[in-house]
Amino acid sequence: MNKKRIFPGMTIVMVVSFLFLGFNSHSQEKWVAPLSADKIVNPLKGDVNAAANGQKLYKVLCVVCHGAKGKGDGVAGAGLTPKPTNLTSAEFQSQSDGAIFWKIQTGRAPMASYETSIPENKRWEIINYIRTLKK
């Protein structure tokens, strides 16, 4: 084979691949719940027992990606794109409980939908715990 023909072809493939991977990793749009989610009311808001139960669930279901303190630094999250959300950030915490509920229920790659695998009241317990993670 002629090296002069292969090299330019490989270069083009590599450049296009790097451009695609670079744009792809940064081009995921910000995850915003629909406005209707803000109307979803947390039936367990302020319930200390719900937050304690939520902490137990968080340790089993969420810690692997979001980390022990909710900073998005869990061991399984390291290889994900986009990275898991920092649940302690002001930006995240400024969302309504309904918006967070909607995200947990709906999911978005790489985060799974938990609509059928976590009962509704347990999702609210997790949200009550997440609210305790504020910076």
TrEMBL record:
InterPro entries the record matches: Cyt_c-like_dom (IPR009056), Cyt_c-like_dom_sf (IPR036909)
Location of the Cytochrome c domain: 49-134
Molecular function terms from GO: electron transfer activity; heme binding; metal ion binding
Question: Does the entry feature the keyword Cell inner membrane, yes or no?
Answer: no
Q: Which UniProt keywords apply?
A: Heme, Iron, Metal-binding
Q: Which PROSITE patterns match?
A: CYTC
Q: Which Gene3D superfamilies match?
A: Cytochrome c-like domain (1.10.760.10)
Q: Does the keyword Chaperone apply?
A: no
PANTHER family to which the protein is assigned, alphabetical:
LIPOPROTEIN-RELATED (PTHR40394), QUINOL:CYTOCHROME C OXIDOREDUCTASE MEMBRANE PROTEIN (PTHR40394:SF2)
Listed name of the protein: Cbb3-type cytochrome c oxidase subunit III
Q: Which organism is it from?
A: Arenibacter echinorum
